[in-house]
Structure formats: C-alpha cells, structure tokens
Amino acid sequence: MTTVMPEGEAIRKAIKWISAELHEDPGKPVIKLVNEAVARFDLSPKDSEFLISFYKKEKGSAMSN
Q1: What's the rounded Cα separation, in Å, for the pair 52 and 33?
Q2: Which of 5, 18, 51, 62 lies 20 to 30 Å (CA to CA) from residue 38?
C-alpha cells in the first residue's frame, strides 16, 4: 500500500518519531504522541489533524490484516 507523505521535513520527522515511539510501546496513546510531536517539531494545527488522521488509518488497516 502506498502512503502519500505530506510536504515538509518537520512532519516527516514527526511521523518517524511517532512511529518509533509506537514501535517501542504500541500501547501509548496516539493523541498524546501527536500533541508531543506538534510541540517538538513546531507543527501547525493542520499538521496535527493530518497526523491524527494518518494514525487512525494506520490503526484501521492494521486491524483488518
């Protein structure tokens, strides 16, 4: 499956960071990680919405496999 990556280095770094955190501890709440990533990588509210949507889709596709 191909995932469209948004433009911007900060959002890419945020996705990598959140994914690494979830790999280390899959039980971590995604919304908490997104909020931390927004502060850590100086992301916009639009970026925050993208991350929440992205990880909801990822969780849904993982459950269907």
Answers
A1: 10
A2: 62
Q: Looking at the domain assignment, is residue 2 inside a domain? A: no
Residue 31 lies in a domain: yes
Q: Whose CA is closest to 33, among 12, 19, 44?
A: 19
**How many domains does the chain contain in total?**
1
- In this structure, how many other beta carbons lie within 10 angstroms of the beta carbon of residue 62? 9
| Residues contacting 48, CB < 8 A, separation 6+ | 34, 35, 38
1 within a domain of the structure (yes/no): no
pLDDT digits (tens, 9 = 90+) for 41-53: 999 999 999 999 9
